[in-house]
Amino acid sequence: MSLKGGNPNPLNYFDLRRVEFSPPHFKYTYVEKYNPTLITNIDGWIKKNLNNRYYLGQNITLDKNNTIIYNTKIGFESEKELSFFMIACPYLQLR
Hints:
Layout: H1 10-13, E1 18-19, E2 27-31, H2 36-49, E3 54-62, E4 68-76, H3 79-88
Parallel strand pairs: 1-3
Antiparallel strand pairs: 2-4, 3-4
C-alpha cells in the first residue's frame, strides 16, 4: 500500500523501490526537460502515492537535426501505475 494509505511499503524500508538503472521490462514516459527540482518533486510524489518499483533519471536523445536533448525518463514496473502517474501527478500538468 502507498505511504498515503498509512501502511509502510517493504520496498521503501529496504530502499529497493527506486532502481538505479532502466530495466527493459518497465513502461516509460519522458518529460521534455531535465530539472533536478522537478526530479525531487516527482520522486516524492511517486513515493507518497504509488506502490511498485520505478526508475527516474536523466536521458539523452537526438532530435531531427541530430542535436543532443536532455530529458527525464520515468518508468514503472506496473503499467497501471504509469497510467495513474500520467493522469494524477500535478508536476506533469505544469509542462
